Amino acid sequence: MADHLTEEEQIESLKRWWAENGRGIITGVVLALAAYFGFQWWQGAEREKAEASSDLYQGFVEAMSANEGQPDNKQLTTAKSLAQQLKEEYASRIYASQAALRLAALAADDNDLESAEKELQWVLTNSDEESLKLVATRRLAAVLAARGKPDEALKLLEGKVPMAFEALFAETRGDILLQKGDEAAAYEAYQQALVKLSPEQAGGAQLLRLKAEGVAPAKKTESPAEEPAQQAPQQEAPAQESDEQ
User: Fold this and answer.
1) Residue range 150-174: mean pLDDT, rounded
2) Considering its fold, how many domains does the chain have in total?
3) Range of the structural domain that residue 208 is part of
4) What pTM was estimated for this model as a whole?
């Protein structure tokens, strides 16, 4: 009997506990399930976006690479259309920024510096990849300098950058300073670039040396008036005849 009453008390206690805590438990379970399935849905959506942006970029690359890198007008139109779709639908994806960088290079080659500037600015505004933003910054500085804005270009290159970009930024700074006519500062920038070259960038060392040599300060040479006067050679005394006949 005592055991029976104990079981009933336990059941009543459990009922009271459930009445007080059951709703919270159910809510917690529902939230946990929602979080789990929500995360699964987010992963699936992200995977779909990654695949879709990858497919668009692949089509862009194929169009840009047609005819051994010399696409005709139709292929260029296709490439630009795909790039625009990437930028509109997947702006934060790396593929969109890579496409914009290639379009900027294409525009710069065609001397369409205004379009090149817009594409590079787009990368700086939309990309989350620091390395791509640094590439865009250096190229934008070169484009601004070519558009007659060297001071604005130099301002872009200010500040500390990762080691992998130090030589590239210094070289670009030297090019812009040379454009401004400041050969001494350009020489210093080229020298800095040579010092900062990584082993992977060693292939550009020869060009950098040529640039530095082209603006190297002329070595001072002493003028004839400054050269110490040379002493006239002493005349040898005439040889004395020997006493011996």
Assistant:
1) 96
2) 1
3) 159-216
4) 0.71
